[in-house]
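Handoff note, outgoing to incoming analyst
You'll be picking up this chain. Sequence as last confirmed:
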Amino acid sequence: MLLALAGPAAAQRPFCDFGEGVTGLRGAQQRLASPGAGLLAGRAAASDAAAMLARAETSFGRCLCPRLAELTGEAARWAEIAASQATAAEVSASLGQAGFRAGLARQAMDRDGCR
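Most recent structure output, in case you need it:
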């Protein structure tokens, strides 16, 4: 009944699960911190982290946290780049960038919350 009175925007707003975003961001940071040795292990870690970060970005976006979603999305894109690199050194460098950006997102979340 309350949703009917709230109007169409509130009734159609997607479900916000900030905790899911936090869990995804933390999980991605852990995966990026220990990707394993070699090209294939690095690519697998990058792919896993990219998926976690993409889900976290979506969660933060649904929760109307645009800055947090933006920072998390940057980390996700670096992880996606790492997953397609040709050498272990390139994968490692891109994973480093993804981890750095995930750390920035985490710091922003810890400092400012949902923004």
